[in-house]
Amino acid sequence: MLIMDNIDSTVRKIDGYSLELAKKLISGGSLVAFPTETVYGLGANAYSDDAIKAIYDAKNRPLDNPLIVHVHKDYDITELVFDNDIAKKIREKFCPGPITLVYNSKNKVSPLVSCGLSTLAIRIPSHESAQKFLEYVDLPIAAPSANVSKHTSPVTALHVFEDFKDNVPLILDGGRCDGGIESTVVDVTGDYPVILRKGLVTAEDIKAVVGKCEYANDDSSLKARSPGMKYLHYAPKVQTVLFARDDLENAIAFYKQTEIDGKKPVFMCEDKISQKLDGYNVLNLGASGAQMANRLYYLLHEGEKIADIIIGIELDITDEILLGVNNRFLKAFGK
User: Fold this and answer.
1) Which of 54, 238, 272, 331 has the CA that lies 20 to 30 A from 111?
2) In 277-332, at which residue ranges do the beta strands (DSSP E only) sit?
3) Buried b vs exposed e over 66-100: b needs ≥16 C-beta within 10 Å?
4) 157 and 71 housed in the same domain
5) pLDDT tens digits for 9-58?
6) In sequence order, what are the beta bridge partners of 121?
7) Distance (Å, rounded) from C-alpha 132 to C-alpha 143?
8) Domain span holding position 276
9) pLDDT tens digit string along 97-124?
10) 46 and 121 assigned to the same domain
11) Rounded distance, CA 182 to CA 36, Å?
């Protein structure tokens, strides 16, 4: 079968037929990939042990890396978790949107979702296609990013297909994700919210709503309370090398040497650095945190197609969104 035939039978636009097919697949324990405003998710029925195992198997994901449950905007989350005033205030301001809240769980979904933890992470995505899918199936959908573990997260349906081919029976195509990096994950089980994974919603944003918010200490020796806390993520399938911002001369020398060696290099950097690299192949991440969040994963995927080596230049952290972008950027370059 031709690859385009595979794509045509697997990747489908959101319509009545694809939604009905998605519901049948989810009800039968199969996986369905779907878009959100951040990245594409690989979804399964959160109540089913077998379906959750299928996610871990398909992604080759470590079994101690918990999943996020996605629900539509009218879903009653108190069926799954214990709610509280802090969480309600955050939801009122930021949901639906690129934020995940970690609650004390009522242990209604498969224990594999939370890897044995007493908490459950829930997200209400704002993407119109995600809402249509979640409303149609009307089940809590456990969904990590729809990529093979450790690979760059997908922001198009084609990215998902390239990782899974025939292993996922349906990929709902909602276009390119505009957020670009995964949701902010916030623990709301304590006296004040704690950010476990940085994203597009920042600590300052949350402080403006509830008065106090802190970032968790990164400690890879601890059991992960959220996706993205413990393992290497986001790496492209080509060699990556990282240089400091003040080491551009050596970065250029390395670029030239790789060309002499018969390889195809490309720089990945922010706009200010890109302007100093006229005449070189450059993946320009942009000037602001929002731009760089939008472009990061897409350009990492593009780099795989055009280069043998991606040469990264460290980012200048000029706004709080860049904390989340830089977290993924460094992990993509093995840091």
Assistant:
1) 331
2) 282-284, 309-313
3) bbbbbbbeebebeebbebeebbebbbeebbbbbbb
4) yes
5) 799 999 999 999 999 999 999 999 999 999 999 999 999 999 999 999 99
6) 68, 102
7) 16
8) 239-332
9) 999 999 999 999 999 999 999 999 999 9
10) yes
11) 9
